[in-house]
Amino acid sequence: MSTEDLYLGKKSYSVLGQRPVRHDGADKxxxxxxxxxxxxxxxxAQGRIIRSPHAHxxxxxxxxxxxxxxxGVLAVxxxxxxxxxxxxxxxxxxxxxxxxHHLANNCLAKGKVVYKGHAxxxxxxxxxxxxxxxxxxxxxxxxxxxxxxxxxxxxxPDAPILLPSLRTDSMGKKGTEPTNIATHIQFEQxxxxxxxxxxxxxxxxxxxxxxxxxxxxxxHVSVALWNEDNRLKIWTSTQGSFNCRQQVxxxxxxxxxxxxxxxxEIGGGFGGKITVYLEPVAALLSRRCGRPVKLSMQxxxxxxxxxxxxxSYAKVKIxxxxxxxxxxxxxxxxxxxxxxxxxVIGPGAMCVxxxxxxxxxxxxxxxxxxxxxxxxxxxxxxxxxxxxxxEQVIDELAAKLKMDPIEFRLKxxxxxxxxxxxxxxxxxxxxxxxxxxxQNSDHWKSKLTxxxxxRGIASGFWFxxxxxxxxxxxxxxxxxxTLVEGSTDIGGxxxxxxxxxxxxxxxxxxxxxxxxGDTDSVGxxxxxxxxRVTFATGLAAYKLGLDLQEQMKQRAAxxxxxxxxxxxxxxxxxxxNGKSLTFKELAxxxxxxxxxxxxxxxxxxxxxxxxxxxxxxxxVEVDPETGKVTILRYTAIQDAGKAVHPSYVExxxxxxxVQGIGWALNEEYFFDDQSRMKNASFLDYRMPxxxxxxxxxxxxxxxxNPSHPFGVRGVGETPIVPPPATVANAIHAATGLRFTELPMxxxxxxxxxxxx
Amino acid sequence: xxxxxAYPTLLxxxxxGQANPxxxxxxVSTTVNNEPAEFLCEPRxxxxxxxxxxxxxxxxxEGCNNGNCGACTVLLNDVPVNSCxxxxxxxxxxxxxxxxxxxxxxxxxxxxxxxxxxxALQCGICTPGFxxxxxxxxxxxxxxxEHDIRFNLANNLCRCTGYDKIVKAVQEAAKxxxxx
Amino acid sequence: xKDFTYAAPATLQEATRLLxxxxxxxxxxxxxxxxxxxxxxxxxxxxxxxxxxxxxELMELSFSPQHGLRLGAAVPCYCIYENAEIAKAYPxxxxxxxxxxxxxxxxxxxxxxxxxxxxxxxDSIPSLIAHHAFAEVVGPAGKRKVAVESFCTAPGRNVLQxxxxxxxxxxxxxxxxxxxxxxxxxxRNEMDIAVVGVGTRVxxxxxxxxxxxxxxxxxxxxxxxxxxQEASEWLAGKPLAxxxxxxxxxxxxxxxxxxxxxxxxxxxxxxxxGVLVKRTLEKAVERAKGK
Lengths: 756, 180, 291
Prior knowledge:
The complex is a heterotrimer of chains A (about 750), B (about 180) and C (about 290).
Chain A: H1 3-7, H2 25-30, E1 45-51, E2 57-63, H3 65-69, E3 73-78, E4 89-91, E5 97-99, H4 100-107, E6 112-113, E7 119-125, H5 128-137, E8 139-144, H6 151-154, E9 169-170, E10 173-174, E11 181-189, H7 192-198, E12 201-209, E13 212-213, E14 221-226, E15 232-236, H8 241-252, E16 259-263, H9 279-289, E17 293-296, H10 299-305, E18 308-309, E19 312-320, E20 326-338, H11 345-351, E21 361-369, H12 383-400, H13 405-412, H14 431-439, H15 442-445, E22 453-465, E23 469-475, E24 481-485, H16 493-505, E25 512-516, H17 533-560, E26 568-570, E27 573-576, E28 579-582, H18 583-592, E29 599-604, E30 609-622, E31 629-639, H19 646-665, H20 682-685, E32 696-701, H21 723-735, E33 741-742, H22 746-754
Parallel strand pairs in A: 1-17, 9-11, 12-33, 15-16, 20-21, 24-25, 31-32
Antiparallel strand pairs in A: 1-7, 2-6, 2-8, 3-7, 4-5, 9-10, 11-21, 12-19, 13-18, 14-15, 14-17, 19-20, 22-30, 23-24, 23-29, 26-27, 27-28, 30-31
Chain B: E1 26-32, E2 35-41, H1 47-54, E3 73-76, E4 79-82, E5 95-97, H2 110-117, H3 127-140, H4 146-152, H5 164-179
Parallel strand pairs in B: 1-5
Antiparallel strand pairs in B: 1-2, 3-4, 3-5
Helix pairs in contact in B: 2-5
Chain C: E1 5-7, H1 12-21, E2 26-29, H2 35-40, E3 48-51, E4 61-64, E5 68-72, H3 77-81, H4 84-89, H5 91-99, H6 103-106, H7 111-117, H8 125-130, E6 134-139, E7 142-147, E8 152-154, E9 157-158, E10 165-171, E11 178-185, E12 196-204, E13 211-219, E14 226-227, H9 229-235, H10 242-253, H11 266-288
Parallel strand pairs in C: 1-3, 2-3
Antiparallel strand pairs in C: 4-5, 5-10, 6-7, 6-10, 8-9, 11-12, 12-13, 13-14
Helix pairs in contact in C: 9-10, 10-11
């Protein structure tokens, strides 16, 4: 029996686990799907952003008169056009309290620019060519300030200060001196001094990672129409239409009732399309000129002006007994957050020790400003950097103890009842199962031969956040069901949500016609992120199915003139007293019998997080003459709870793995000595091409999630967590050298090998 | 592509002063997806802009506008090109094929069908470019190896799939086309 | 992109007339894979763009074993590697043509354009140097020939004078027992700019156990691509051995004066010259032996 057979399909379902063609598929393979930049509105104006060429500078003046005189120019806006947002905060979902002044400043700078590519003005014109010409005519006078881009440099007392009013918040206590350290957090359990005393072997190492970008292929683009009736309509590429609506409404100080956000098809996000950049600026331009305004970024603007993930420094120390039991762990993590406070140090600190039992542990985390674009979420934000550190120390400890790296992990693996260092105690999780699947995999059992080759393994963890989701549906005469849900669909979630509704109702996936509604046509739904859609919106779809089923029972009861309680439903079949109708047959009888149409709704707001674990295996070959690393074979194993659509679960695992491989080997923001990014193009940023990776083998493990009726766990983010550590462990196996700095690019690997 | 690599770039000034942003347009006659098409365009407009904004064929996508992502791939006289690196005026007399021309008479091209069945797309923004390049590959080489597929698709970036299912979908389509 | 006018002359005469009249403000368009990006990004300016693909001499691709290869300056890369005879005769050129960008780039980009763009990291120039090609230039004063190794003068600059145009690259006939190869080092496997590029050609003696003649071209190690003359000349008469290739690599490093940038530190680039000279010589020798 293959490992796939072992772990797939522990419970029988009729729809879940099938691989239907996605509902939006035909549109997307024929070029018909409408992404925001495909939108053509009557009388639409085109906009352009003017950006700072300096990483840190005071804006002394912005000269716009020449641009405004150019025929065809309709409007120019700058940071002076924001409403007064000083000291205003908004509570925004998982992001917590967001300082609106900072959010506005990031979209359009006021007074000062804090990274190269920071937006300083925007222009709208009748054509893009005129807008570009006008952008060249806008002259900005700067007074250049010193800048900093490495997190540890930014923490030094004499570092250039980005926000003069900033004081460190250290566990609720405010500092007194100007600083770039926005936050210091600390998690602790047990007593690490005692823990390290019990240890026979202790390994401590330092790790560094460069900033990397989400790299979605669709640049940011938004269209805004601020109508004369003061209603604002926005079409945009966003991971959360309601989150976008809230941000725009808070930034422009207009009620949410005046704003509708239409989520168009979205060309990738990976966490980078949650915060707004263009939407409120397009709105300001539209209010000025009375026309719809389209604002889109060029690729270099995406790299220079939108959120990379943090560059980071980590020091990790772990102690173990001779028998392999972990006794203590200590981590000191500093992540940059770019030019505004509020990065991803929180989840980074929660995740660093999340795969294992640590009876004694302490984690310190720092959120640090520097002159880079404000960091944003990137697929399991903060966890990959942490795993790169922890999983290499784990690998080294296993080697020192002469233990098999899987056995060592199994001995300490987090399981039901394990308390994570930040507090939560795990319910049933599937980490051990992923390790066992790795052990039984064809890849792990195969022999790796050849010179300069090595095999590595590493694991990773990420949350599945809950949050609110809503959906509604109506049953059609032909037995089909029209579903409206609020989760923007980045990778096939219309289908994974529709399948859960179909499973509940006992109909086929094709019988459900799902669509993503705008903010005026569906209930509040939190963003597409946190590996939550198939889990939480899927949960809403299940509840919606129960609502529809109950109503269908009532219709059957009315039809047969019996009590509703006398109608039985099994696998989509409604029966009573020997009479029976399928869902479809029953739906067909409703209009003729003049019964009320069936319209259902559901909303959920699951609290807390469920948990996703993965383990990856990688074989590499290192060219000793050039330092180039080739990925020979790669296997990703993950607990999906229940794989709703296995092809798209595999797709998430494969895509995340390859993003992680890119992070491991070549991707980085390269800055010059003036803190200016030098490689803001797909050519020089070097994301993996099809020729850089092998097939990515996948093994789906299914340990049902106790907080979901079908056992579903989110799967989107975990796959990016293990790869850099997995590759590093493989390179170590091939070369005997530990690489503690990302990316492990050829010059670095060569340098280390040549000085070995 | 297109950088003056590794050394300070140089701007050659042309003493023209400020260019007039509204230029004279040129008339271009061409064939798009086997149908004659005519359009007016400024010399500076790319074929991608013409296709999307003038001819309203928005299947080709702009991912980078400098030839590095392949999302705007179309066939120009049967060879795949980045339409962002072709001027609209260069299309005079040429034959252009876009993703909109792949399905015919209500039937998807086997590549399109295999992309759907093999879940070879997630966000879908790179999909048109991949389909067009893959079609050019199978037209030229009906039995490509995995390496041939990966080599020829290397100018098309995908950030969602890790390429695995795209390569497999092309392999499947090649099999289907061979069986026809 | 700033506005420009467009012309597609059908004759060399018309092209040189337009170029002369433009007084330095015209830019030539062949495949467009460099110039369109540079115009869009404001790295170069143009009042007029002159499309040279309608000029027969620039689209000429003719080869005969006796006369060698004449490669029109605007012939796209794919035409080179899809021609079996040429592929066999000029393998280093073909190696280059296959890796300039991806397929979509090769459908448009030309070797002539790669030379005229005059990037220090140009993938084709080391191969042109190795193949001993020369550039045929036409201008108001008539025709002249320029050795490819002296064509580029600085990053993005070359010997073309106002009104001049590259017409074709002319390659000498290939000799028996000769072979060539181009390799570059890049961090990815495709779609990348050379960290270092090396093109070599060798001609062996009758017995195929000694090098009679060699030429080595280097890219991305100096402000312009370089002919590694000392290393090339030293190879004459040397046996086919790993030490020979390694020694040639050491000599070739002498002409490398690389900078450190995002593509790699200077020290690493210099090291790669040695690695790639060795690897391309091995490959060129194998090809010369008919393997």
